[in-house]
Structure prediction request, 150 residues.
Amino acid sequence: MTKLDRYNREILRELKINGRIANSELAEKIGLSPSACLRRVQELENSGLIKGYRAVLDADLLGINFIAYISIGLGEHSTESQQAFEKAINIADEVKECHNMTGAFEYLLRIETKDIKSFKAFHANVLGAIPQVRTITTHVVMDSPKDERM
Prediction:
């Protein structure tokens, strides 16, 4: 496993803020030569600590005006029931995140749709059609003053 010393932690912090930063700029910010910095970044990538890079998209410009978190309770607590639910939910474009949870419900979903009408259709036609689903509780996002996914 790659050692997480001060330099590697700083590299990870900077790349989390700006994954497109030039190696020369990154090296200057953390106090390494460009070649040493590049070797460390490659090592972090090869070790799997850096899984990839992505673009952060503007939801408003994409027409995503409705975001909700939905807690899902299953009717049966079995591996087969969970697998069937996960298979059904993985093909739904509206589902941006799916987390298996402990506590009062089994899953927490992040849903993004164009508007409330689109959400209602998703709720009825997708979630309502999954036989394993027993309960659905929706929490509508009004604002996100802190969101480190961006």
